[in-house]
Amino acid sequence: MKKLILILVLVILGANLALPADFSVKSYIDKKSIDAGEVLKLTLEINGFSQASPKITLPKFDGFVVISANTFNEISIVNNEVGSLAKMVYLLKPVKTGKLVIPEIKVKYKNKEYSAPAIEVEIKGTLPIIPQEPKNMPQTDSVAVEEVTL
Fold first, then answer.
1. Would residue 34 be called left, alpha or beta, if left means φ above 0 and alpha means ψ between -120 and 50 degrees?
2. Mean pLDDT of the chain
């Protein structure tokens, strides 16, 4: 009898756990203006996804070099609602000065496309001089990640 009651309670609680209907995508930077040589932190937040993973299409970060990329995932249950949040944090080092634009970031989820709008940032000052590699050394190609699936 106790097992039956326990199973019944779990079924009722499980039926009341609802996934939030609000799926959202936003991006932001830690500073709107930085000095040349500093690092800019770009954060992309995806909120409200469930079992299906969103597909992220990253733009080319023209004027920047990605020096670090990290992903953080969080799942919570509050008032019988399941919440999910994924944060992708990119550290970007500018290779140009002036006003630069981080293009919009597109996310596809359950056959619908969402996007975080473009962000403008100002890079002030002069970039440090970086010594060039000797000409007889082989060149290495940089690899850009364009699509990420959580």
1. beta
2. 79
Give the structural domain span for 60: 17-128
Are the CB atoms for 143 and 47 separated by under 8 Å? no
Note whether residue 6 is domain-resident: no
Residue type, 29: I
Please state the domain count of the chain.
1
Report the candidate in 130, 122, 132 with the shortest Cα–Cα distance to residue 36. 122
Give the pLDDT confidence of 83-124 residue by residue, as tens digits: 889 999 999 999 999 999 999 999 999 889 999 999 999 999
Sequence-ordered list of residues with C-beta below 8 angstroms from that of 90, at least 6 positions apart, any chain: 41, 42, 43, 44, 61, 66, 68, 69
The closest of 85, 45, 41, 84 to 66, measured between CA atoms, is: 41
What count of residues does the chain have? 150
Q: What is the DSSP string of 1-33?
A: -HHHHHHHHHHHHHHH-B--S--EEEEEES-SE
CATH assignment of the domain containing 41 = 2.60.40.10
